[in-house]
Structure formats: structure tokens, C-alpha cells
Amino acid sequence: MIQFDRVSKRYPSGQQALQNISFELDRGEFTFLTGHSGAGKSTLLKLVLGLDKASAGIVTVAGHNIVQLTPEKTAARRRIIGAVFQDHQLLSDRTVFDNVALPLEISGFSQRELRSRVRAALDKVGLLRVEKAMPAGLSGGQQQRIGIARAIVNSPSIILADEPTGNLDSALSNEIMDLFTQFKSLGVCVLVASHDKHLINRFSQRTLVLKDGNLIADIPGEQGETACAKDQTKQ
Ligand SMILES: Nc1ncnc2c1ncn2[C@@H]1O[C@H](COP(=O)(O)OP(=O)(O)OP(=O)(O)O)[C@@H](O)[C@H]1O
Ligand SMILES: [Mg+2]
Question: Of 41, 44, 167, which is best to mutate to test ligand 1, by the most ligand atoms within 8 angstroms of its C-beta?
């Protein structure tokens, strides 16, 4: 689903943010991306999103070399990616429902289809009851879950999250990460950037480790011991 082939990124300032990075992430795979502040995590996510271009190497997303895409194809590719950020990026003058509906309005869905998709996404993150509330009246964890509902409402094949639990306490962080790990059973490829070692250790998932722009480790997850698998056996 996501493939990096000897990818490097050097910013115009001369800062070498990524150096000769190669890895591959499949459908239905959950992966952490970790490393110290400035290691290159956000830069790597930006390359997947197409918000910035690699200086060398090839980034392939859902079978397409992203550098060669036309603007129309770039827009189509963006629709298959749901992105979640630490600061939520919610619109404060819109209700929870309207915030989540935003990506669908751009896609031109009918009102009926839109309502059913937004409600399904809100249900998945446990926010159906507060659909008419304004984001400012909700807790940090609830606001983060609005961001997740907005990222999944288009049924993306890929979910990217940059420090999605950065502002949350450990109970809420666990809750959010449980949600993310559940998406992999739906065949979604999930990549979560986090520098929170405790959080990463609690969820035994594949982990890519960056150091000064180099990929220094690719640690496999413990199959069968994942939070996702545990959840499924409980049901
Ligand atoms: N737009 C930019 N222009 C120039 N240099 C940049 C830019 N964005 C990031 N950098 C530099 O590239 C390197 C990698 O930054 P990046 O933001 O990817 O790190 P990070 O791992 O996400 O760090 P953090 O954990 O603090 O979010 C850093 O040295 C940073 O200063
Ligand atoms: Mg970052």
C-alpha cells in the first residue's frame, strides 16, 4: 500500500531530513513510526500525503509513483488517505456532525448518503450522542475522536496519524490506539507517528525507528498478542 524505495528528503534550507529510506507497508497492516524529535517522522508522513516531494528515490502509494501523478490523480489519491493530526484541526464554528461531514461535502455525496456515512463514522468512534455539539464543548479525547471520524468517513485505504495522542493522558491514548488497531482488521493500512515509547510498548505492533533521518530498525509486531487480536477474542 505504501512503498519507499531509497527515499531521501533534503529541505531547501540544506537540512537532510530523510536518508535512503526503504520499507513497504501492506493492506491491513498497523505500523508505528518512532524516533527522537527531528528524526524525520512528520517529513515521512508528508511525503506519503504528497504535501512535499522526495529529493531522491521513489514513493509509491496504492500502486502509484506519487511524483508522476497528474493533479486530478493526486486529488483522487488524497481521498484514499485519512489523516489525523495532534492539534485536531477542527472547525470551531461547526458541529461535530458538520466537521465529520466536511470531506464528503467536497466529494459531492447526496444528503442521505452523507448522513448515513457520517453517523456510521461517529458510531465507530463512540460519538453518535454528541453529533449536534460544538467541538469546543467536548474533552480533548472526544475532539481527537472527531478528527478520527473525519479521517475515516471516506472509507480510506490508508490512515496516517501524526502524534495523535500527543495531548492526551494514558487512558485516552490507549482508547485512541485501540481504535486505530481495529482498522487493520478492516484491511486499512495504518501508520502512526509517535515518540511515546510507553504507548508503543503497550501495543505490540510493527515499529519503524528513525534516527537523524535514517531508518535504523524495523521491528516486527507480535502476532496474536496485538490489542486488536485481544479485543476480538473478548467479543
Ligand atoms: N519545512 C522545513 N524546512 C526545513 N527543515 C525542516 C522542515 N520541516 C522539518 N525540517 C527539519 O527536518 C528534520 C526532520 O523534521 P520532522 O518534523 O520530520 O521531525 P519529527 O520526527 O516529526 O520531529 P517531532 O517529533 O519534533 O515532530 C528536522 O531537523 C527539522 O528541523
Ligand atoms: Mg513531527
Answer: 41
